[in-house]
Amino acid sequence: MKKKVLVARPTFPDVIERLKQHFDVDVNLGDVLPQEEFARRLADRDGAFTAGEWVGEKELAGAPNLKVVANMAVGYNNFDMQAFDAHGVLGTNTPDVLNETTADFGWALMMAAARRVTESEHYLRAGKWQKWSFDSFLGADVYGSTLGVIGMGRIGQALARRAKGFNMRVMYHNRSRVAPDIEAELNAEYASKEDLLRRADHVVLVVPYSKASHHTIGAAELALMKPTATLTNIARGGIVDDAALIVALRENRIAAAGIDVFEGEPNFNPDFLVLDNVVLTPHIASATLGTRRAMANLATDNLIAALGEGPRAGNPPNPINPDVLKK
C-alpha cells in the first residue's frame, strides 16, 4: 500500500506527478486551506508538502502517522520545532536554491526605494508630470555608498558580493562573525547592530525569524539610522516593527523603505498604503519560474527521501531536525 501525502497548496503539475509515482497524493488545488481543514486533511497522512501552513502541537497530535513535513521555503517559522521533536516528525526546508534570486530582488527593492521609483511612477501615471526640474524626485546614491547587511548567511553574502560592482563599503551584523576568508572575499566589516545602523546608507535585512529576532528593527533602531538612509526587508514579517517603521517613514526619520514581507501577512498595516516613500511587494523575493520550480522539486526530493523512497531513501537532503532521523 502506498504511503499517503498531502500537498497543501497548488504547485507545478510535474511535481505532483513525481509524488504520485510514490504516494497516494491528496492535492489542494484551491486557495490556502483554513487551518481546521488543513489539520483534518493532514490527519491520516504520512507526509506533507507545505508552503507556509502552520504546523504545531495540535496538527501533529492529530496526525499520528505523520513522518515528515517538507516546507517549500528556506524559513520554517511556520513549524513549531519543539512539537516536531516531541512527536518524532521530521521537518525539511529548501535552502540554497533561492539565494541568488532573492539577493537580486533585494537589490531591486533597495534601489527602487533609494531612487524613488514607485513614487515617481505613480506621479507619472497620475498625469502630474508636466515639466522637468532639477529637484524632481531627488533620491539617494547607491554607487559608492555604504551597504549594511543584517544577517550574513547565504543570501546576505550574495547581497554583499553584488556590492563590489557598485564600489560600496560593506558592513554586516550577524549572530557570529563569518570566517575571515569570507570577510576578505566580500570586503565586509563586522559591526555591532547599533554601529551599522548609524553608519549605513542602505540597510538590508536577511535574518531568519524567531522569537529572538522578533522586532530586530523597532523604534529605537530606526532612531539610530541616518535621515537619508533606506531600509529593505526581504527576511520575514515580524523582523521589523511595522507600526514603528510607518511612523519613521511618515515623519521622514529615514528616507525610504522597500518591504517584501509584513507582520501578519497576507494582511498588513494599511497605513503603509498612504506613504509615498515606501516600495511594497507581496512576498515575491524568490518569485522567478526557475527558482520556484527548484524549490518545489527540492521539497519533493525531501519528502520522497524522508518517506523511504527514491535514490536517497532515508537520507533527505535538507533535514531541519536531523536527530529525528536517528530515532
TrEMBL record:
Q: Which domain of life is it from?
A: Bacteria
Per the database record, which ranges form the D-isomer specific 2-hydroxyacid dehydrogenase NAD-binding domain? 108-285
Example GO molecular function: hydroxypyruvate reductase [NAD(P)H] activity
Q: Could you tell me which InterPro entries the record lists for this protein? A: D-isomer_2-hydroxyacid_DH (IPR050223), D-isomer_2_OHA_DH_cat_dom (IPR006139), D-isomer_DH_CS1 (IPR029752), D-isomer_DH_NAD-bd (IPR006140), NAD(P)-bd_dom_sf (IPR036291)
Limits of the D-isomer specific 2-hydroxyacid dehydrogenase catalytic domain: 5-311
Keyword annotations for this protein, in alphabetical order, are: Oxidoreductase
**Region of interest called Disordered, as start-end residue ranges on this chain:** 308-327
Q: Which Gene3D superfamilies match?
A: NAD(P)-binding Rossmann-like Domain
Per the record, what is one GO cellular component? cytosol
Q: Which family does it belong to?
A: Belongs to the D-isomer specific 2-hydroxyacid dehydrogenase family.
UniProt name for this protein: 2-hydroxyacid dehydrogenase
Provide the species name.
Answer: Caballeronia hypogeia
